[in-house]
Amino acid sequence: MAGNTLGSLFKITTFGESHGKAVGVLIDGVKSNIPISEADIQKELDRRRPGQSAVTTARKEEDRVQILSGVFEGKTLGTPICLLIWNKDADPKAYESIKDLFRPGHAGYTYLSKYSIQDYRGGGRSSGRETAGRVAAGAVAKKILAKRGIQIIAYTKEVGGITAKKIDYDVIEKNAVRCADLVAAKKMEKKILKVKKEGDSLGGVVEAVVKNCPAGLGDPVFDKLEADLAKALMSIPAIKGFEIGSGFTATRMKGSEHNDEFYKDNKTGKIRTKTNFAGGILGGISNGEDIVVRVAVKPPSSIPKAQKTVDVEGKKRTIKVEGRHDPCLCPRVVPVVESMIALVIADHLVRQKQVAANHSITRIRGEIDLLDDMIMLLVSQRQDLVRDIGRWKQKHHVPIPDSKREKDILKKRLALADETNLEPEFIEELYAAIFHHARKIQREV
After folding, report:
1. Does residue 445 have a pLDDT over 90?
2. Coil, helix or strand for 223?
3. Residue 162 pairs with which residues in a beta bridge?
4. In terms of domains, do 63 and 198 share one?
5. What is the CATH number of the domain that holds 284?
6. 193 CB neighbour count, 10 Å cutoff
7. Contacts of 92-97 spanning 24+ positions with Cβ under 8 A
8. pTM of whole model > 0.85?
């Protein structure tokens, strides 16, 4: 199964299934000597774990993380970091009676179509349980970003048509739905519980803000920062929409209204924008303003209300999904959104450092050294082949010099030199030395 890895230089690979033995993540590209502990990671996992309140699943997982590698005496080693989280409250029995039925809204049918097998226990790899590894990796990324003063804040913006009006970051972790508006939070919670009693579920919107992100992150054309953010956030189970800055509101604005006017901040000397409809990114590259994104979270698909479906044979059936499921995913999606953003920003920070390093004489000399090593290896391989030809010539009593072959080789190389803007005199001198050395080797065999 492909598609389990995210990132270019700062990479993560998650593993595990919902009701398997464990879930986890492998992180590569973390530099050495960064302080990190299981407590740092656990703090983030506690925000994502199930069983937090009446508006989340009743599944009781401690989500205790274990650092298996990459950290020694509280600091990263620069080697791959493996984080493991055991599944201790898995209950696959709830799925036995419906294992041959396709759950509406779930990936059972598509997984079966693609792989000819599916893990029916809670969705297996497609379950939101997989995001535990993402959050664990996100905790490491957040530590890296914190050293740069970069902060990521996500919160529930809307649930079931109820929208936060007042935004107060201090109250996000003080209510069950992780809303930035306490008045709206109470209404959201009440509505979620009401719909839960009806055997149904609700969706919503999660908004996130990245503060103090430096200008210059992101690569055109296909590696734009917002494109990588969109991919990362849309990869979260249950996410059905992404927008940045003004998002779809921009479709109802004029260009004169939407354009963010530039000005110079006299205090900092930095170029700023008076508004932020662009959401902190222009041309795929961060501009130093707050990065603002939103994701649409669908209503959870697993509901006890009776639904029509078909089984693996295509026969009409009725299904009621029992077990422990979230009536609304927004509260637990919030830390996942923060983690995915942190992973993307961390990756682009490393990539930007590489861009800066590309201008150094040390980097250029390093690349020359690498090419010289490759040339030496190729020369060695050519010598081995020349010896083989020498043995063949002696066995068949063929003269060592072969002027026709040498002329053909030189002709082809001079044509290639013309295409690659190499000096023909240099190529002629180079191959004169190569031919002289080759004849010498063949005579000595």
Report:
1. no
2. strand
3. 159
4. yes
5. 3.60.150.10
6. 15
7. 92/19, 92/121, 92/122, 94/322, 94/323, 94/324, 95/19, 95/120, 95/121, 95/122, 95/323, 97/322
8. no
Q: Residues 307, 424: one domain? A: no
* Residue given tokens 């191959």 in the structure block: 431
Q: 285 pairs with which residues across the strands?
A: 282
Taking the C-alpha atoms of residue 71 and residue 78, their distance in angstroms, rounded to an integer, is 8
Instruction: Report pLDDT digits (tens) over 335-377.
Output: 999 999 999 999 999 999 877 766 667 767 877 888 898 899 8
pLDDT tens string 176-207? 999 999 999 999 999 999 999 999 999 999 99
Verify that 35 and 68 share a domain, yes or no.
Answer: yes
Q: Residue 305 half-sphere exposure, CB side, CA atoms within 13 Å? A: 12
CA distance 222 to 228: 9
235 & 254 share domain:
no
Please give the residue range of the domain that contains residue 86. Answer: 5-245+280-357
d(CA 16, CA 333): 19
**Distances in Å between the alpha carbon of 139 and those of 99, 270, 342?**
35, 30, 8
Looking at the structure, tell me whether residues 342 and 259 fall in a common domain. Answer: no
Q: Give the separation between CA 117 and CA 245, rounded to whole angstroms.
A: 41
Task: Give yes or no: residues 90 and 199 share one domain.
Answer: yes
Which of 339, 357, 375 corresponds to the end of one domain? 357
Per-residue pLDDT of 17-41, as tens digits, reads 999 999 999 999 999 999 999 999 9
Domain count, the chain: 3
196/341 same-domain check: yes
What's the pLDDT tens digit per position in 234-279? 999 999 999 999 999 999 999 999 999 999 999 888 999 999 999 9
